[in-house]
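Predicting holo structure, hexanoyl-coenzyme A bound.
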Amino acid sequence: MSDVIFEKKGHTAVITVNRPDTLNALCEELISHINSALDAAENDQDIFTVIITGTGKAFIAGADIGEMYEKDREGIRKWARLGCDLNARIESMSLPVIAAINGYALGGGLELALACDIRIASSTARMGLPETGLGVICGAGGTQRLPRIVGDGIAREMIFTAEKIDAQRALSIGLVNRVTDPEALMDEALAVCEAINKNGQLAVRAAKRAVNASRDTDIHDGCIFEREAFSSLFDTEDQKLGMGGFLAGEKNVRFKNK
Ligand code: HXC
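Done. Tokens:
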């Protein structure tokens, strides 16, 4: 059985991390296979959105502690780069990526979820950055992305205490957008994807680039970036279809993504 399962559901690619013996802990090979699954999603013109989830009781319970344990400073730096690059790739890839957090999302697992565009959690999920309890800190963006999502104070508390929080707490601090019953998680994630998939995908991708730009620029440059992206969409057939459809009273515009 493969440690990453790739399925197509309509215009959505569902990538399931499947290494349940270690609660889906991220080892070098698994990271490479997740990258291959993301390649498959990106190279398929018919895929508009991606869901990442896990099998069993974990989303991803962190990086593989066994694989990391013996490494020295140079070795772990190279290893950490794999996780950093994976998360940066998820964040900057053109397609929206939804984390369907089915269980434990800890350490490197939560860091991966933080790089996703939208997080939805099962009511049984538990999340945290336990690294300080292991004598280390996050190595794949946790200290950088968590404060941007939940705010500085809450992030410091989570990182310094290493405590796990439950799904309701995660919802209350804005770490996840929605909480569902465990059995409804995939339907909920797919429904969010469907709501995205029906829109003009050139617009959705431009929106992702523009929101990403808001993290890296001041508001003045960010608004210039947005205005340019907005204007560029007036070169597309979709803009004529979307606005023309509205003016003609059409309810369900079928975009060409051109
Ligand atoms: C390797 C892991 C693992 C991990 C669980 N396992 N998490 N193996 N790396 N991160 C293995 C266990 O050793 C065990 O193997 C099996 O999965 C089941 O786990 P249990 O502990 O028996 O399950 P449970 O009692 O339900 O406890 C679940 C848990 C606990 C609370 C999630 O497993 C846990 O605390 N795991 C570690 C979580 C963690 O610290 N993550 C951060 C890692 S550091 P056996 O063989 O005994 O069945 C990190 C740094 C990122 O992520 C840096 C990125 C560059």
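Residues 22-23, 25, 61-66, 80, 83, 104, 106-108, 130-131, 134, 139-140 surround hexanoyl-coenzyme A (CB under 6 Å).
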